[in-house]
Amino acid sequence: MPLVTPLSPDHDKETRELATFFNETLGFCPNSVLTMQHRPAISKAFINLNKAVMANEGRVTSALKRMIAWVSSNATGCRYCQAHAIRAAERYGAEQEQLDNIWEYRTHPAFSEAERAALDFSLAASQVPNAVDKAIKDRLYTYWNEGEIVEMLGVISLFGYLNRWNDSMGTSIEQGAVESGEHYLGKHGWNKGKHA
Fold first, then answer.
1. Residue 154 CB partners (closer than 8 Å, separation 6+)
2. How many Å apart are CA 182 and CA 186, to the nearest integer?
3. Mind listing the pLDDT tens digit for each residue in 30-56?
């Protein structure tokens, strides 16, 4: 049972219009956004931030951004966001082999060294205490420019917010996200947990 009950998608007209973004990303408006509507300024600001962070300005693809989000959510343990991130990675064209082997990104041949550097950055930046160091920086600069690193950290930071929001709220997970979580993550023990 969530801490706060999500409101109807029709509760706030501006949020509803902005939330059409999630129909492309996930195929539904997330319950997290519906809960944020209790204070519409938060739901609208969050959606606009999400759109800005997920815009493609360089070589960081939509699929890689969602895999960065998955690594961050996996590091913090938010099952809701893990399922959402893997679903969005699938919807944005991540390679099937990457989706099937996301847990082994460090060693699986489906991932390039540039992708590994980005995903290791996500893991290090999502830990408490933060583990970003000179070695992580040097690897990033081998493959990515400063604007792309800003995009990556935007994703990591956005999911830091979402991980805390959804785990604290105990946000109920939507069926589409459950299906993706079970399909890609279930073999490694993923389940709905508190998000039932």
1. 52, 53
2. 4
3. 999 999 999 999 999 999 999 999 999
Tokens of 62: 């939509």
Sequence-distant (≥ 6) Cβ neighbours of residue 120 within 8 angstroms: 106, 136, 139
Amino acid (1-letter code) at residue 111:
F
CB 122 within 8 A of CB 72: yes
CB 167 within 8 A of CB 37: no
Q: How far apart are the first and last CA of the chain?
A: 7
Cα-trace Rg, the chain: 16
Q: Tell me how far apart the alpha carbons of residues 13 and 100 are, in angstroms, rounded to a whole number.
A: 38
What is the phi-psi region of residue 170: left when phi exceeds 0, alpha when psi lies from -120 to 50, beta otherwise? left
Q: CA dist 99 to 64, 66, 85, 111, 160, Å?
A: 11, 11, 11, 10, 22
- Hey, is 182 helix, strand or coil? helix
pLDDT digits (tens, 9 = 90+) for 142-190: 999 999 999 999 999 999 999 999 999 999 999 999 999 999 999 999 9
The values of phi and psi at residue 143, to 5°, are -120, -20
Amino acid letter for position 15: T
The answer, yes or no, to whether the previous bond of 30 is cis (omega within 30 of 0) is no
